[in-house]
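Handoff note, outgoing to incoming analyst
You'll be picking up this chain. Sequence as last confirmed:
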Amino acid sequence: MTSEIIYIGLLCLHAACLIPLAARGIRRRGFRELPLDPLLLRAPELLFSITAVFFLFTFIYATNANMDYVQRFMTSHGNLRLAPNSTQERTSALIRFLPLLVLDVAWYVIPRLGRSSKIRPALGVRSAVGVWSLGLAVLSGTLSALSFPSFLRTAGLPALGWISLVPLFLALGEATLPLGIFYGTLAGLLQTMISNYWLGTFNLLTLQFVSAVTLLEYIPFMAVALLLLRPAGRLGFLVFPAAWTVFDWLRSMGFLGYPWGMPGATQYAVLPMIQVASLTGVWGVTFIVVLVNAAIGWYLHAALTREKQGPAAGITLVAVLVFTLGFGAIREAQAAHAGPAPRTVRLALVQQNADPRKDDYRADFDTLRRLTDQSLPSKPDLVVWSETAFVPNIRRWSQEDPTVYPYAALVRDFLAYQKSIGRWLLTGNDDYSLRELPTGEERLDYNGTVLFSPVGARVDTYHKIHLVPFTEYFPYKKQLPGIYQLLLSFDAYLWEPGDRRVVFQIPGASFSTPICFEDVFPDDVRRFVAEGADVILNLSNDYWSLTETEAMQHAANAAFRAVENGRPLARASASGLTCLIAPDGRILARSPFFTEASLVVDVPLRLNPETLYTQWGDWFPPVLAGFLLVFFVGGFIWRRRP
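Most recent structure output, in case you need it:
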């Protein structure tokens, strides 16, 4: 029902905007003779943007029609009404939205063709660039999305990262403050929806919430950045690199933290460039990428508007790149001549290629056992199963009668098998604790990892601390009960956050296990290493996405955690990317996506000193924030002088 209301609203909005055109006789004079009215020229920009966003959402969401678990959800809850398959659902979206998009594009393009010099005064812009600002913003959002691992190329197109923001910066150079906010927000929203399209299958509300949060985050960011740009003068090329880095850092914090899609992450495979992350975290790479875009945009805009710009941008850019690439080359040379590691730990990373939400727990366990048996001849020190690989709660069902409860029987079989192999075994698993209240006991559920010893003893358990907002965690049950009930009605399974950073110990090695989403948070992983972890061991379940794109994006983010902390990082994922990443970010070994596999890897353990980032944490963004504050105050005072 909501989608129908939105579509009818779009139809009404288009009709209301087209009425003035008809009233002015556009039908008689043709689109090329559209009066030079700024409102009529700007109207298709707004209409296209709104229509494109809702079309993208509808087209992406259609993927759910082909998913078995969603079909069952539809039957039991009735919150969704989808066509029998994704092809029909996407065809329906095209039939509804494509005519509106074509109309908006025609309304936008035709009046501007060959009339740039006449339209500039009406739009208040100085060059032809300002006439096509909407197209530049859309281009920037699209290029930014494609620079990451995407549906176009699973490995991504890192080269696009160096130019993807240039069209947006050109548009912002010609825009008023309100229009600049609009173009920047649109580019950010398009980049988020295109690069995160796989969120449409994660949870039935995730894409909506992420899109809404992105919209609310970009509006104040663009407003602040553009206001800082005004007094910057010839040093304005530094404003957006600093502001964008601070923005990405801020949006990684708190309940809504989602540090996905940062410009620096596009360069995960460019090893000399990303070594600076050991000093600054991924934030330093983001700063450099945006700086290159800003400098190019700075000089292009100056050429188009025939303004003279000094050499400051070029000199700064060259100095930063020389330092970064020089530092990276030194780090790479050190890694190449390091020699064999004094000790190693052998891991068997099991990828069962199964969706735990389909409740085939016995079949999943049989697969895990078969793949583990294949790895045992290699004599691994530790067998690693992915997040929620074994779903039934081991703590709970081990206490129940296996003749009465099927889950209890399955847990008993698991415990017997684990003891029989005589190996350390780590698995993702639900866990719980009981809290005493005046009214009785309250059960707290956790997403966890559990370590078992070779003799079958449960050694330690880690409870996931940084949970996925809205789909794993919602801390405002009492304050916002309506949203809480909505989440429950859409089958969200909410956990409690853990409160202890566990460093597991096995003979010869220590490791910590950030679970799934946690390995995209730089400071969270840094804290595990600071607690003494030799190895970062991420357990993930990316099967739900049904795409290699999401899995590769996840691994690309994780690669920075290895570089930042100078520690090897291994990943055991339900469907990929199961891999071993070296401390310099190289992927040393990997399993294919969406296949059953058991990857045995020898993880080198070196006595590397803590990196500057491990010691100091997120020091770089606050320094940039201080620079922006001083810059703004100093520029304001200077411009106030007689």
